[in-house]
């Protein structure tokens, strides 16, 4: 626990925001932009607003997780990136303030986006996203501690991220948009799965019952492999209707090291590159899908 007066440096705050997770926020918006272009409904400023909302949400959820896990003591022996509260470099109150500020910014920007789109029912979806960000590890019974984190990531940074970006521009979605949403959601969930695979020993010790601790080491590795395969199956299916989308298959080699690490039994810090490479493959897939849908 941080001592009173503990003050993290700027670089530590940046690391605490977990910049390696940013592709999880950027990819759904990029894929959504491509789907909006395919519907002849692209709006650059609505796309920028959607991106800022997504980035604010992921920074907010990262700081919120840091705070909630830190005050529970579940971050004290973690292998991954710096935890501000768990390592004692920042006071819990400061991290809580940062989390609430980022989530508040997401809420304000989301309200602007809903207002200009005129689809007021989207406020409910935005509220669910913010509540989901907080209660992932916050509150008395955080759902991330009961094995529902992967479902939330799939919904919020897959379905909601992609389809929401399309809907605020086109007022409707398409089958291509839905396929992109599922693909990005699987990628994003794979990132969390690799993270939770790495943390199985410490999560069991701290009583955090993630899906990975429930599936066990072998089951979690198989889940990861299925999740990273789904986007490429969808690439082939989509390629029947949008042949240019087959270009997304060239991102598959980016996952070779990750697949070997996860499938080959890597543990602890050996799995950290898998998180990075999975996120980058997701972003590359989303960019190429957006380009392909533009034709």
Care to describe what's here?
It is found in: Cell membrane; Membrane. The chain has 295 residues and is mostly helical. It has one domain. It has twelve helices and no strands. The longest helix has 31 residues, at 211-241. The termini are far apart. Residues 1-5 have low confidence and may be disordered.
Given helix and strand content, the structural type is mainly alpha
* Global geometry: globular
Compressed to H and E, one letter per element, the order equals HHHHHHHHHHHH
Mean pLDDT: 93
What low-confidence regions span 5 or more consecutive residues with pLDDT below 50? 1-5
**Overall number of domains:** 1
* Quaternary state of the chains: single chain
What does the radius of gyration come to?
19 Å
Through-space gap between termini: 53 Å
Q: What's the total number of strands?
A: 0
Give the strand content: under 5%
Q: Roughly what percent helix?
A: over 70%
With helices defined by DSSP (H or I, 4 residues minimum), what is the helix count? 12
Largest sheet entry:
none
Keywords:
295 residues, mainly alpha, 12 helices, disordered N terminus, membrane, UbiA_prenyltransferase
Task: Describe this structure in a few short sentences.
The protein contains 12 helices and no strands. It is mainly α. The chain has one domain.
SSE arrangement:
Elements: H1 10-16, H2 23-38, H3 44-72, H4 84-87, H5 92-117, H6 122-135, H7 149-170, H8 175-198, H9 200-206, H10 211-241, H11 256-263, H12 272-293
Helix pairs in contact: 2-3, 2-7, 2-8, 2-12, 3-5, 3-6, 3-7, 5-6, 6-7, 7-8, 8-10, 8-12, 9-10, 11-12
């Amino acid at each position: 626990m941080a001592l009173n007066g503990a003050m993290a440096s700027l670089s530590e705050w940046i690391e605490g925001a977990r910049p390696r997770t940013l592709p999880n926020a950027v990819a759904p918006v990029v894929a959504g932009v491509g789907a909006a272009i395919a519907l002849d409904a692209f709006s650059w400023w609505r796309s920028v607003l959607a991106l800022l909302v997504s980035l604010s949400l992921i920074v907010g959820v990262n700081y919120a997780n840091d705070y909630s896990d830190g005050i529970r003591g579940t971050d004290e022996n973690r292998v991954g990136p710096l935890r501000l509260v768990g390592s004692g470099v920042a006071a819990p109150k400061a991290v809580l303030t940062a989390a609430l500020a980022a989530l508040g910014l997401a809420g304000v920007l989301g309200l602007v986006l809903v207002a200009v789109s005129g689809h007021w029912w989207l406020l409910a979806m935005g509220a669910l996203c913010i509540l989901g960000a907080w209660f992932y590890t916050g509150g008395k019974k955080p759902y991330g501690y009961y094995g529902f984190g992967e479902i939330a990531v799939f919904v919020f940074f897959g379905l909601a991220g992609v389809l929401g970006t399309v809907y605020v521009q086109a007022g409707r979605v398409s089958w291509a948009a839905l396929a992109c949403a599922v693909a990005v959601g699987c990628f994003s969930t794979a990132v969390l799965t690799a993270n939770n695979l790495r943390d199985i020993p410490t999560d069991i010790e701290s009583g955090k019952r993630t899906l990975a601790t429930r599936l066990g080491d072998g089951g979690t590795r198989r889940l990861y492999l299925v999740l990273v395969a789904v986007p490429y199956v969808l690439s082939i299916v989509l390629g029947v209707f949008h042949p240019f989308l087959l270009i997304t298959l060239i991102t598959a080699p980016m996952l070779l090291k990750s697949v070997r690490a996860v499938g080959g039994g890597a543990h602890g810090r050996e799995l950290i590159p898998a998180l990075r490479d999975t996120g980058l493959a997701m972003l590359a897939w989303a960019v190429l899908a957006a380009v392909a849908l533009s034709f």
